[in-house]
Structure formats: structure tokens, C-alpha cells
Amino acid sequence: MKIGAYFKDNLYKLLVFIVCYVFNLLIFFAFKVEKQVIISSTFLYVISFLLVLFIPYFRKKKFYDNLLANIESLDKSYLVLETLSKPEFYEGELLYQALYEINKSMNENVRLIEEHLEDFKEYIEMWIHEVKIPLSTLVLISNNHKEQFDKKIKLQLKRLEDYIEQVLYYVRSENAEKDYLIKEVNLADVIKNVGLKNMAYLLENKIDYIVENAQYKVLTDSKWLEFILGQIVNNSIKYKRNIDNSYIKIYVKKTQEKTTLVIEDNGIGIKESDLKQVFDKSFTGENGRNGSSSTGMGLFIAKNMCKKLGHKIEIESIYNEYTKVYAVY
Length: 329
Hints:
Blueprint: H1 3-9, H2 11-30, H3 35-73, H4 90-144, H5 151-173, E1 183-186, H6 187-197, H7 199-204, E2 208-212, E3 217-220, H8 222-238, E4 247-254, E5 259-265, H9 272-275, H10 285-289, H11 298-309, E6 312-318, E7 322-328
Parallel strand pairs: 2-4
Antiparallel strand pairs: 1-3, 4-5, 5-7, 6-7
Helix pairs in contact: 2-3, 4-5, 5-11, 6-8, 8-11
């Protein structure tokens, strides 16, 4: 609470004091009051005014300074009421009561919103599991009757399956702690599973899937890591270049401090202006605008899941040369 601002806000008190004092002097002069009495009276007037002005300032200063400091220091500013003692002046009591009522109303609304979100999340998960049943049946039928199903139909079924899985993991990532299980996982097994799942895409696009030096174990959730790696591989396939030797190379760099999984491709790359935003929600960038259908959600979900698992994910790229994604454990 700044004294200058407080004084400016109470400037009207000074004006009232001056007007009253002038009238008082006129009365003194009218009745020919002695000079010593006028000086003494003036001194008492000034002292009284300063006390009336600054005693409330010092009473309020501690409360308001504490309020502002706590708001700045808290990550969740709306919890500031929990850090305050009830003030002993009337204005402060009014403010404290107003904050209490606002906080109470906000908590009630947040609780209702959380209940609605939880209901919606449960519905989405249920819907996804239900829709996967006929989809899995279609995939099974297409595999058992290959001569009757066009290759392009099977690829579209696979894409539909991938998008449904993306929705499922996005919903689950909001309550990650309930869904993942951290244990020792062999990276080579995860990489192999991702390659098998995307075999049709890789063959269709004539991309070599190269795995080197991957026999390392890390602490993670295998199901989540498989999904994260799958999103990165799908991006590499989607943004391939029209060249003969397209590849996706996956390997591990191991040091004493960390294990880094590298996913490298020689696709169209990412423009430097887009690099800082590739993990942003719904960001498609120059590549997404130039033809490839993209939701901009894959890398966003992958980044979010890595954060919850305690991993780091980084990306580097040179346009029309390569892209490298680093998952650090």
C-alpha cells in the first residue's frame, strides 16, 4: 500500500481541513484571540489532522500489503483468502467477506464443471470402446477377405482406428495418474510394436523403418510410450518427401546421466518459424496448410503425456532435409 497513492485518495480530507481551519482563523481574528492561542490551536489542528489521516493508513497497510504479496507469490491466486487473517477495520471486513462469498461461489461452480467434465469424459471413453468393436470387426473381415477389400479401404480403416485411439489417449491424459503404470520397459520392444502397427502405412509410402542400438531399458509406461512414439512415426510418414530413399531411423543415445530415444526421418522437415510451436495445441504450421490433413493434436498430446511421465521431448529440423525428435528419460 503506497503512501503517495493513499494520500492522493484522501486529498479531499486535506481540503476540508484547510477550509475549516480558514474559517476557524476568521473566527479567531473576529474575536481578537491572542497570537499564542492561535499558534497552539494551529499546532493541535495539524497534529489531529495527521493522526486522523495516518492512523487508518497504518491499520490498513499490513492487511493490504499482505494481500498483494500473497497474490503475487501464489500459483493459484484464488486461494489467497486462505492465507489472510480477518482484518480489524470495517472496509477490510467488507472486502474479506466479499472475497469469501466470491470464493465460495467459484468453488461451487468449479465443482459443477468438474462433475460435468467427468460425466463427459466417461461418456467419451464408453463411446470409444463401443465404436472400436464394429471397427475391429471390419478390420478383421478385411484381413480375412483380402481379395474382396481394396487396399485403400483397409488403410482408411487403419487411419480411423488411429484417430479414435488419439481421442482416447487425449481424454485419459487429463487424468493421467489413474491410467499409467511406471515400470522397466525395453525400448526395442516398444519400437517393434510401433513398426508393426504402422506397417501398412510404411509399405504404402515406401519408407524404410530402421532400428539401431535400441536394446535399453527405461522406467516408463509401455502403453503410453507406444502411443507417443506412434504419433511421432505417423508424422514422419505424413510429411515424407517424394524421394526414393525415404526412411525413419530410430536409435538410442546412452550416457551416464540419461537415455535419449531419437526418431529421425529425411522428410520435408519443419520451417524454423514453426519449430517453437509444433507442440502447441491444434498447431498445424506451414506443412499442415500445404496439403497434408492434420489435426495438430498428435505432438500436443505426446508432449503432455511425456510431461506427466516425467520425460522430456524436444525437436530439431532443417526444412527439406530432416527432422529429429528426442525423447529423454
